[in-house]
Description:
The chain is mostly beta strands. Helix content is 1%, strand content 56%.
Amino acid sequence: MLFWEKKKLLFKNKKKNFTHTQLPVSIKLGKTIRIFYSSRDKFGRSNPFCLDLSENLKITKIHHKPLLNLGDPGTFDDMGIMPTCIFKIKNLYYLYYIGWNVRKNVPYSNNLGLAVSKDCLNFKKLYKSPILQKTNLEPYFFGTANIYKKNKTYLMFYLSCNGWLKKKKKYEPIYDIKIAKSKNGINWYQTGLTAIKLKNGEGGISSSSIIKYKNDYLMYYSVRKKFDYRKNKKNSYRIGLAKSKNLYNWSRTDKKFNLDLSKNSWDSEMMAYPNILKLKKSYLMFYNGNGFGKSGLGVAVAKIK
């Protein structure tokens, strides 16, 4: 397995009337590393932004303009947009994003949208509707997604909500990671297969990031408990690890991931939303710390041996 070393807090959002640097998503563009993330405006709505890094992890440019506008009233993304995956297919960059709706009986509902770009900066929504569909097997909502291409098939590993649990008059979502397939990255077949299952006491698995390392596929992801996970570090998000030989059958090996919470630092209460980027001699892991990214965006490094 890879041995990870924490490097530093890379960036903390200081935009006026915005908080959070949530859900980092990275891509290599020549010698530039572009990181997409979401920030929350004064109304609590997520908006998509990006910044550029050099290979030695120095910030070279912060793009201050939101990449996409919130959807029209009544559409699936009218109350928030969060980037969740960036993938190049032929000559276009596909930005998969989470659209947010506010609900009355439960707090929210999410679904996945798709925007495209020729330059990986100026994006246009492909549709006003989501790319995944609610079914009898998946009647709730969809969240974070990661795309991995094997041969001519695109595989999506996405958050799928299994329902809501109520405690002290408050509902919390329960979700795991399921698998969808596509030939073009646009039209998806939801297999109904669960990639990573919840263990007893767990309430959510999200934000997978997959790499091929030696003879195994490795998936890094976030996992939390059912309740009281926002500020209680005993229940908050940690980064988990699973391995597979074929991308369909996964075994959890969480204890083999060597990083945990820091002491009295930006990631002392939570580690969430890992995103892995391969360089020539190392892997970079971008991730969030306390408060779902309110404390900023950091990086860990693992050398390729």
